[in-house]
Each structure stands twice: as C-alpha cells, then as structure tokens.
Amino acid sequence: MELSKKLILEELALFESKFNDSVQSRVPLLDRVMRYVIKRKGKQMRPMFVFLSAKVTGAHVGESTYRAAAFVELLHTATLVHDDVVDESMERRGFFSINALWKNKIAVLVGDYLLTKAMMLALDNHDYHVLQIFSGALKQMAEGELLQMEKARNLNLREDVYFEIIRNKTASLLSSACAAGAFAATGDLALSEKMKLFGEKVGMAFQMKDDLFDYGNEDVGKPTGNDIKEKKLTLPLIYTLNRVDAATRRKLIYILKNENRRKERVAQVIDQVIKAGGIEYARDKMYAYRDEALEILHSLPPSPAQEGLEQLVRYTTDRKY
C-alpha cells in the first residue's frame, strides 16, 4: 500500500488538518470525545479511495474532493460509534469504545453530531450530488444491518441474501467514496457511476476477507469464531450448511443457536467449515470480486493513480488484519 499512500501524501496531510477542524464544536465534552476519536482513527482507507478515485480521472484535486473525503470519514466514524452501541461493544481497534467510556446516550449523540456535520458540510457548500451519493449509502447501510439481524434469528440464509447484506452494509460506503471522489473532481456522472461499481466490487471483496479472518489461516493465526458466537452467517458457513447432509446441518444449527458461546463447540463448527471446503469457496468468490474491480479499473487510461488504486485493491484481499 506504500505507492497508494505516496501518491496522495500531501492530500492526506492536508485532509487530516481539515478533518480535525470540521469536528470542532463549542461544547467541551464533545471536543474531548472528538480528540479521543481522532487519536484512535483507523487506516483512513475510504478517504484514500476518494483521493485516488479523483486522481485516476486525471482531474485536479480541489476543495470539493477534500470535502468528499471529510464527508466519508465523518459518516464512517459515525456509523462505527453507533455500531458499538448496537453491538454493546466495549472495544474499538484495541481501545475502549466511546460507549464504554461515556455510556450509550453520549455515544449515540456523538454519532448523530458526526452525521449532522457531514450533512452540513455538503449543504453549506452546495455539494448536492455528493450528499445524494452518501445519503444513499447511509440508507443501504441501515437496511443491510437490519436485514442481517432479521436473518440471524432463523439461521436460514441464502447466498444471494448474504451478498445483498454485505453489498448494503459494507460495500455501499466504499462504492460511495469512489463515486464521490470521481464526481467531485470531474462532475462527470457516467464516470462517477463507473467508479461506484468499482468501489462496490472492492467493498464486497473487503468484507469477504473480514469474514475469512474469523476462521483463521496461515496469515492470521488462530481462528476467533466471533461471527459464529454472534450468530452471523458468513459465506464459508452458508456454503457449508448448504453442502452437508441433513443430520450434520441440524447439528451445526443447534450449536449456532444454543451453544455458540462454548469454545469447543465453535471449534467443531470451524472444523466442519474447513472440511466442507467453505474457506476455499469464499476465497475464490473474494478473488472473483477483486478481479472484477481490477477489470473496471483497467478500462481507465494508465496512470500512477491507477497503479495506486490497484495496489489498494490488492491490499484489501492480501492484508493480514
């Protein structure tokens, strides 16, 4: 990912300053929470996709692109804060979550504040199409989360429903980042749609890589089984449930419903998934989405930004964590 970062080093440095300014308020408590959030930010992959999607068009990166990058980071941070409340998670990236330190009420309001700041950033600068792009992503993310919750109850999930869930829940924000980056730089709707599809393919591969981490391999070490404990049906498990005999399927579903917190039972599910070929199947699907994304990318004129985006795409499927 070094080339990807090198190509937008100046943009990311300036973006960080602009983003920090964008979350300031006149409420001391809110500023304390924001400082905590900023210090523990992640890899900023979505702003990277915004800037590289702008640069790959050959257009100039201007203020509208910086606003698009700030919008996606505000939106992403808000959804993470809200997710931790919904999931009752006490940790985020190895640190205490906002709700762990300041309780749920403050965490929800902080998430709401971040969403509002994103909306105002677009409205105040008349970035109406960018606002439309990200509003659509926010709607999809909520739908994806609720659909996943609904399907987790009966543990009867088809592959097509799984893909719908991750397309809405995860891929929509990354696809919007790419679409907004291209549009902010060019104003070209057709090019923005192409980059949106590119981002969706990358986002699908990204989520499938996350799902594979739960089962462990030579890259990530011991399996965690967290998705199984939370009754999340990911592609390796869906494939397995649809391939094993009826008796084994009943046994696996019983474990998922009633014994999903027992370490030895979770290990049995993981072993069965490995035995059924669920890992290889999901990995092949992940690489297929990655290759589809690269095909779209290679339809654009060759450039350093294109190479940077390709490196970033490959990082999503080759990363170790």
Structure report:
With 321 residues, this protein is an all-alpha fold. The protein has one domain: Orthogonal Bundle (Farnesyl Diphosphate Synthase), CATH 1.10.600. The protein is 77% helix and 1% strand. The protein has 15 helices and two strands. It has helices spanning 2-7, 9-22, 28-39, 45-55, 63-86, 98-124, 128-154, 159-186, 189-213, 226-229, 235-241, 246-258, 263-276, 278-297, 304-318; strands at residues 91-92, 95-96. It has a two-stranded antiparallel ribbon. α2 crosses α5 and α5 runs antiparallel to α8. The protein is globular and about 60 Å long. The two termini are 14 Å apart.
SS element count, helices: 15
CATH architecture heading? Orthogonal Bundle
Low-confidence stretches: none
How much strand content do the residues show? Answer: under 5%
Number of domains: 1
Mean pLDDT figure? 88
CATH-defined topology: Farnesyl Diphosphate Synthase
CATH class membership: Mainly Alpha
Order of strands in the sheet with most strands: 1-2
What is the first-to-last residue Cα distance?
A: 14 Å
Percent range of helical residues: over 70%
